[in-house]
Amino acid sequence: MNGTIQVWRGDITTLNVDAIVNAANSSLLGGGGVDGAIHRAAGPELLEACKKLDGAKTGEAKWTKGFNLPSKYVIHTVGLVYKKGSSEVQRQLAACYENALEIAKNQGIQSIAFPAISTGIYGYPAEEAAEIAVKTIKRKLEQFPIRIEVTLVAFDEKTEQLYKKNLEG
Ligand code: AR6
């Protein structure tokens, strides 16, 4: 694996990394949850930059600068609204992590922090989402051309424990 994966609990908007990932919706024009927190902390210039992105589909990722955030970039990815029994959901959630890391590779980003995409308002079960996040990031880092430090940001203790369990296993 070319890089490291660590777990950190707290507010992603405070992290001093090259890029933080935003769990956005397809409009890429802001919302609640971590999306709202990122827009508040980055300031109004972020919304202006997002307006130029022309939205994104589920699983896609697009980037902007971080403006007033400590991080240089924000990588906006669109999670999925969880549907029980859909075989698409695992693939779509994995695509969020893969496409965000693809941008990191192309932009020469050396440190990136992810929130637990889709596990809030979009309702993806935390256990399964943590497993997919860890598996997908590990697989992607096997082929990564440069070293990258990945931080999995947990906003609550349950998510923190799930990440730790999956990283050990
Ligand atoms: N730092 C880190 N993690 C956070 C923060 C924060 N400041 N705030 C919330 N989380 P959610 P989704 C966690 O709902 O499920 C928005 O309206 C939260 O505890 O933010 O992908 C968008 O515009 C949870 O674990 O995103 C979309 O419409 C995780 O971040 C929709 O919500 C994701 O929760 C996306 O829903």
**Which compounds are bound in this model?**
ligand AR6
Structural class, from secondary structure content?
Answer: alpha/beta
The domain count comes to: 1
CATH class: Alpha Beta
Question: SSE order in H/E notation?
Answer: EEHHEEHEHEH
Number of helices: 5
Describe how the helices and strands are arranged.
Blueprint: E1 3-9, E2 19-24, H1 33-42, H2 44-51, E3 61-65, E4 73-78, H3 88-107, E5 111-114, H4 126-142, E6 148-154, H5 157-168
Parallel strand pairs: 1-6, 2-4, 2-5, 5-6
Antiparallel strand pairs: 3-4
Helix pairs in contact: 3-4, 4-5
The structure holds ligand AR6.
Outline the structure in words.
The protein has a single domain, classed as Leucine Aminopeptidase, subunit E, domain 1. Helix content is 40%, strand content 21%. The chain has helices at 33-42, 44-51, 88-107, 126-142, 157-168; strands at 3-9, 19-24, 61-65, 73-78, 111-114, 148-154. It is globular and about 40 Å long.
Report a brief summary of the structure.
It contains 5 helices and 6 strands, in the order ββααββαβαβα. Helix 3 packs across helix 4 and helix 4 packs across helix 5.
Q: Tags for this entry?
A:
169 residues; alpha/beta; Leucine Aminopeptidase, subunit E, domain 1; six-stranded mixed β-sheet; globular; binds ligand AR6
